[in-house]
C-alpha cells in the first residue's frame, strides 16, 4: 500500500478537491484510486458532515474493495467501512465510507433526491461506462448546482477521455496520476486461432515451461470458457514431468464465484509456485491482481447487447476494443517488465478493433432507466434536457416508452402513472415490478414474490452452471407436485415451495443439484422484496405474503395472469407449422422455446397456444427463455392496446429524433416522458 502511485499525489488531490466541487482523476489501474481516495478524504475530516460514497459498476468490486479498505483501516467490515449492493447491505450507523454499486446509489436518490447523507460522492471506474454510471453523471450535474457548498464529486477512471467529462462538468480540473508501469513486450500471433481456448492453453503451457517465474493472467470470455480452460490446464500441468518446471496453482476469477473463492487471487503466491489466473474482463480494471508478469489475451469479450427493434438480447462473444487490449496488456507490467501474448495479429488490433468499447447506454434496454428518470419528477431538474455523456438512440428510447405504456407505467401522453411510480420503488426490472403489483391485486403475491426472487438469483441456483447442468433443470426434482407443465415460472415456484416444506434442507438442495448458497440467497431476496412491498403497497398489501406452501391450481393461474400483465410486451403465439412461436410484441418474429425450458418442445401436443417469456435471447437462433402458458383472453386486450400506441403522443408530441437539439450530447425528453433504470444484475 505504501508505494501506491496515488499516494504521492495526496496533497495535490486534497487541495484540488478542497477548491473545486467536481474533480476528474485519471490513473492507471492499480494506482490506488478505489482503495485510497476515500481514505485520504476520510483522514481530512470529510466524513464529519456526511458519508463518503464510492460507486462501483460491479458488485464484486464493491465488496472486494470495501473489504480491503476495512482491512487497511483496521476496522470491522460493516462498521466504519461498509458496502451496499442489491439485496445485501453491510453498513451500519457507524459507516463513514460506503462502497456501493451505481444502481444502489440511483435507487437511494429516489427516496432522497439530494443524497444529503453524503458529503463526497466518488464515481469510480467511470471508464466502464455502465448505464447507471452514465445516468449518475447526469444527475451529479444537477446535484452540484444544488449542493455546491457541501458536496464534492470525484470521477475516477483508468482510461476515460478526461477532457470530455471535464467539459461535461463545466471544465472541471483533471488530475492525472502517472502509473509506474514497467515496459510490456507485446507478442502477436500470426493469425487468429480457430479455437481460442486451445490456443490459450498452449500459450500458457509454453510460458510455464520456458519463462522465468511470474504469474500468468489469461483473459477468457465467461464462466463456461473459464471452467473448460481451468480443467484442461490442470490436466496438462499434472501431465508435465515432475521436476521439469515449478509448481503451479490455477485460480478462476469471475463475477459468479463465491466470495471466498474470489479473494483467493489476493493471497500472495507461495514461493516457487506459479499462479495461473483465468479471468473474465473483471481483471481488466475492476480487480487488480498483483504478481502478474505474463498476460494471455484472447482478444474477445462476452457482451450483452439489446436490439430495440426486436426486443432481443444477445450475449455475443465480440472482439475487444483497443482500450481493452491495452488495459489487458498493462496488467503484465505492474511489478516488473512483462509480456503480453495477443492471440491475434497486429493488423486485427489496428484495423478491426474499435478504439473504445460502446457504452452500455447504447446497447441496453432503457425501460428501467426511463421509468427511473420519470419517477424523479424533480421540480428543478430540466428533464426536457437530460444530459447524457453519450446519448442513446431514439429507437431505444421509443422502445422503452412503448414497453412502459403497455405495462401501465406511463399513460398515452407519456406521463408517469401511479402504478409506474410504485413500480419505480421496487429494485427490479419494470416487468417484474409490474407483475408483483398485479399479483398483489389478484391475491397471489406470495407466489409472485417467490418467482421474482428465483428469477433474480437464477444464475446462482444450479450447481456448476454449465450447458449440461442448465439442461438438468428440465428434469425437476422428482417429488414435485404436478403443475410444472404450465411452464418455467411455475416450476421455479414449485422448487422453492418444496424446499420451504423441507424446512430449507441442505440435503434436499444437494439431492436436486441446487446450490445451497443460491437457494439461501433466494430466501433472503424474497424476504427483502416482501418487506419492500409492505412499504410501497402501503395499506393495500395482500396479507398472505408469508403464506406457506399450498398446492393450488387457482394460485398458479392467477400467477400466470399476473405475469402476462407484467410482461405484456413479451407474449408469443404458437405457430404449429413452424414448430415454434410468433412474438406478439412491437415486431413479430419467429422464435423457439429454449431447450432448457420445462415446456417440452419434443412433445408437440404439449405446447400451449399462448405463452409469456422472461427473455428473448439470440444464440444460434432466437429463443425464449423462461416460458409460461397464458390464456388467450388475457392476451387479446393487450393486443388491442398495442394497436393503439401512438409514439408521437407517448414521446410528448414530437418524435425523439426531432428533439435532439441542445448540442451533441443532450437529448430532449418531454417532462412527462422519462428515461432510465437499473437493468439486469449489475447492482
Ligand atoms: P485502482 O482503483 O487504481 O485500480 P485499487 O485501489 O483497486 O487501484 O488497488 C490498489 C492496490 O490494492 C492493488 O495493488 C490491489 O491489488 C490492492 N487490492 C485491491 N483490493 C484488494 C483486496 N480485496 N485484497 C487485497 N488487495 C487488494
Shape: globular
What multimeric state do the chains show? single chain
Distinct ligands, ions and cofactors found in the model: adenosine-5'-diphosphate
Strand order of the largest sheet: 4-3-5-2-6-7-1-8
> How many beta-strand elements?
21
Share of residues in helices: 25-40%
Compute the separation of the termini in Å: 28 Å
Which class best fits the helix and strand makeup? Answer: alpha/beta
Describe the main β-sheet briefly: 8 strands, mixed
Counting H and I runs of at least 4 residues, what is the number of helices?
24
Low-pLDDT parts are 380-384, 464-476, 654-683
Q: Which range does the strand content fall in?
A: 15-25%
Radius of gyration: 25 Å
Mean pLDDT across all residues, rounded? 85
Region (Disordered): 465-484, 651-683
Catalytic activity: ATP + H2O = ADP + phosphate + H(+)
Domain Helicase C-terminal: 200-377
Protein name: RNA helicase
SSE map:
Elements: H1 10-19, E1 22-27, H2 33-43, E2 51-56, H3 59-73, E3 81-85, E4 88-90, E5 97-101, H4 102-111, E6 118-123, H5 131-146, E7 152-157, H6 162-168, E8 174-177, E9 184-188, H7 196-210, E10 215-219, H8 223-239, E11 247-253, H9 259-262, E12 273-279, E13 292-297, E14 300-307, E15 312-319, H10 322-330, E16 338-342, H11 346-352, H12 367-376, H13 394-406, H14 418-424, H15 430-442, H16 445-456, H17 467-472, H18 488-501, H19 506-511, H20 516-536, H21 553-566, E17 571-575, E18 580-583, E19 590-593, E20 610-618, E21 622-630, H22 632-644, H23 647-650, H24 656-659
Parallel strand pairs: 1-7, 1-8, 2-5, 2-6, 3-5, 6-7, 9-16, 10-12, 10-13, 11-12, 13-16, 15-20, 19-21
Antiparallel strand pairs: 3-4, 14-15, 17-18, 17-20, 18-19, 20-21
Helix pairs in contact: 2-3, 4-5, 7-8, 12-13, 12-14, 14-15, 15-16, 15-21, 16-18, 16-20
The structure holds adenosine-5'-diphosphate (ADP).
Amino acid at each position: 500500500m505504501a508505494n501506491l502511485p496515488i499516494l504521492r499525489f495526496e496533497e495535490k488531490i486534497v487541495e484540488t478537491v478542497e477548491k473545486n466541487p467536481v474533480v476528474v482523476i485519471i490513473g492507471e489501474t492499480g494506482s490506488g484510486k478505489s482503495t485510497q481516495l476515500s481514505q485520504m478524504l476520510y483522514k481530512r475530516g470529510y466524513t464529519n458532515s456526511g458519508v463518503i460514497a464510492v460507486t462501483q459498476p460491479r458488485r464484486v468490486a464493491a465488496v472486494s474493495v470495501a473489504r480491503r479498505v476495512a482491512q487497511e483501516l483496521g476496522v470491522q467490515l460493516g462498521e466504519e467501512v461498509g458496502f451496499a449492493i442489491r439485496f445485501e447491505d453491510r453498513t451500519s450507523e457507524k459507516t463513514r465510507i460506503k462502497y456501493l454499486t451505481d444502481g444502489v446509489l440511483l435507487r437511494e436518490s429516489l427516496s432522497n433526491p439530494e443524497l444529503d447523507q453524503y458529503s463526497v460522492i466518488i464515481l469510480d471506474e467511470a471508464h466502464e461506462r455502465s448505464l447507471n454510471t452514465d445516468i449518475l453523471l447526469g444527475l451529479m450535474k444537477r446535484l452540484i448546482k444544488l449542493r455546491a457548498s457541501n458536496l464534492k464529486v470525484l470521477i475516477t477512471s483508468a482510461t476515460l477521455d478526461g477532457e470530455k467529462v471535464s467539459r461535461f462538468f463545466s471544465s472541471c480540473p483533471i488530475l492525472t496520476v502517472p502509473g509506474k508501469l514497467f515496459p510490456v513486450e507485446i507478442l502477436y500471433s500470426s493469425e487468429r486461432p480457430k479455437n481460442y481456448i486451445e490456443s490459450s492453453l498452449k500459450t500458457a503451457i509454453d510460458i510455464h515451461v520456458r519463462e522465468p517465474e511470474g504469474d500468468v493472467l489469461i483473459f477468457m470470455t465467461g464462466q463456461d470458457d473459464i471452467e473448460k480452460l481451468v480443467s484442461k490446464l490442470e490436466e496438462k500441468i499434472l501431465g508435465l514431468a515432475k521436476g521439469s518446471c515449478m509448481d503451479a496453482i490455477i485460480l478462476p476469477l469471475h463475477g459468479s464465484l463465491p466470495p471466498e473463492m474470489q479473494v483467493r487471487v489476493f493471497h500472495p503466491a507461495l514461493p516457487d509456485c506459479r499462479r495461473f489466473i483465468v479471468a473474465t474482463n473483471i481483471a481488466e480494471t475492476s480487480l487488480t491482481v498483483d504478481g502478474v508478469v505474463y498476460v494471455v489475451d484472447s482478444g474477445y469479450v462476452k457482451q450483452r447487447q439489446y436490439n430495440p427493434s426486436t426486443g432481443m438480447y444477445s450475449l455475443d462473444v465480440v472482439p475487444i476494443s483497443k482500450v481493452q487490449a491495452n488495459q489487458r496488456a498493462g496488467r503484465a507490467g505492474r511489478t516488473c517488465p512483462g509480456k503480453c501474448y495477443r492471440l491475434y495479429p497486429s493488423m486485427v488490433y489496428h484495423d478491426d478493433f474499435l478504439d473504445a468499447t460502446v457504452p452500455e447506454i447504447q446497447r441496453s434496454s432503457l425501460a428501467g432507466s426511463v421509468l427511473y428518470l420519470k419517477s424523479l419528477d424533480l421540480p428543478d431538474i430540466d428533464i426536457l434536457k437530460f444530459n447524457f455523456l453519450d446519448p442513446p438512440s431514439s429507437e431505444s428510447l421509443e422502445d422503452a416508452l412503448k414497453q412502459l405504456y403497455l405495462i401501465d407505467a406511463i399513460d398515452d401522453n407519456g406521463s408517469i402513472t401511479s402504478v409506474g411510480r410504485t413500480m419505480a420503488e421496487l429494485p427490479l426490472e419494470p416487468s417484474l415490478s409490474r407483475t408483483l403489483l398485479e399479483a398483489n391485486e389478484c391475491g397471489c403475491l406470495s407466489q409472485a414474490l417467490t418467482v421474482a426472487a428465483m428469477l433474480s438469483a437464477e444464475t446462482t441456483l444450479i450447481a456448476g452452471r454449465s450447458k449440461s447442468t442448465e439442461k438438468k433443470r428440465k428434469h425437476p426434482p422428482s417429488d414435485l407436485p404436478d403443475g410444472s407443465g404450465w411452464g418455467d415460472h411455475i416450476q421455479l415456484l414449485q422448487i422453492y415451495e418444496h424446499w420451504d416444506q423441507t424446512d430449507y434442507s441442505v440435503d434436499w438442495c444437494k439431492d436436486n443439484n441446487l446450490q445451497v448458497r443460491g437457494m439461501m440467497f433466494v430466501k433472503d431476496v424474497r424476504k427483502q422484496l416482501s418487506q419492500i412491498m409492505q412499504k410501497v403497497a402501503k395499506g393495500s398489501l395482500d396479507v398472505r405474503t408469508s403464506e406457506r406452501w399450498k398446492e393450488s391450481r387457482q394460485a398458479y393461474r392467477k400467477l400466470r395472469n399476473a405475469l402476462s400483465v407484467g410482461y405484456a410486451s413479451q407474449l408469443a403465439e404458437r405457430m404449429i407449422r413452424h414448430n415454434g412461436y410468433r412474438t406478439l410484441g412491437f415486431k413479430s418474429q419467429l422464435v423457439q422455446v429454449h431447450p432448457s425450458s420445462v415446456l417440452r418442445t419434443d412433445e408437440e401436443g404439449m405446447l400451449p397456444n399462448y405463452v409469456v417469456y422472461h427473455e428473448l435471447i439470440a444464440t444460434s437462433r432466437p429463443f425464449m427463455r423462461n416460458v409460461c402458458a397464458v390464456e388467450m383472453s388475457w392476451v387479446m386486450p393487450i393486443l388491442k392496446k398495442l394497436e393503439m400506441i401512438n409514439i408521437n403522443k407517448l414521446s410528448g408530441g414530437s418524435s425523439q429524433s426531432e428533439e435532439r437539439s441542445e448540442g451533441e450530447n443532450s437529448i430532449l425528453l418531454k417532462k412527462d416522458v422519462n428515461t432510465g433504470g437499473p437493468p439486469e444484475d449489475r447492482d
